[in-house]
Amino acid sequence: MPKVLVLAATGFEPMELVNPTDLLRRAGADVKVAAVGTQGLQVDAAHGVKIVADVKFDAVKNETFDLIIAPGGMPGTKNLAANHDVVEFIKRHDKAGKLVGAICAAPGFVLAQACGIMKGRKGCGYPGCDNAIAETGGELTTDAVTRDGNVITSRGPGTSQQFGLALIEALISKEKAHDVAKGAILA
After folding, report:
1. If 0-12 CB within 10 Å is exposed, 13-18 middle and 19+ buried, where does residue 142 land?
2. For a surface tag, which of 22, 43, 89, 142 has the fewest beta carbons within 10 Å of its beta carbon?
3. How far apart, in whole angstroms, are the C-alpha atoms of residue 175 and residue 163?
């Protein structure tokens, strides 16, 4: 069973965490949501939404996952980018060829600026937050979801279901992504 870690910092965009997490769990992945920079497991998202994470990031930061996901939203994305352990965690997974997913502001602020892993890669993100992809040597696309090797990026809340399905396709199979989409009435 593939292991997935979703990074949840205060101020994340709820749709960008919940949709991919739900779809990946439907696909049979072992998905853990990790609270980053909080005292406990509750993480306050944008728009007054609160979630309860499965684990604290500090408890799993030395583990290796098949896929890690950085949701967007403000100030959640800035909180991820400012966390040294998160940045090193993402860089380590990228270097090992593990799947790295980011959506909305996270491709620009976290993957490109903080981690420096978008150079020479194609990626997309939320308009106005995605310029860092090109500024750090990457190629900016306007696709709903862009995959370049082990890095998968997406535009924002409205593309979060497509993002989740693309993650399933990359992590498990195209057939599993289709089955999950059909079951969720997304196809």
Report:
1. exposed
2. 142
3. 16
CATH superfamily of 3-183: Class I glutamine amidotransferase (GATase) domain (3.40.50.880)
Q: Sheet of 151-154: strands edge to edge?
A: 55-56, 30-36, 3-9, 67-70, 99-103, 151-154, 145-148
Question: Hey, where are the domains in the chain?
Answer: 3-183
Condensed to tens digits (0 to 9), the pLDDT of residues 45-104 reads 999 999 999 999 999 999 999 999 999 999 999 999 999 999 999 999 999 999 999 999
pTM of the model: 0.97
Q: Nearest CA to 53 among 64, 63, 43, 61? A: 43
Which are the catalytic amino acids? 104
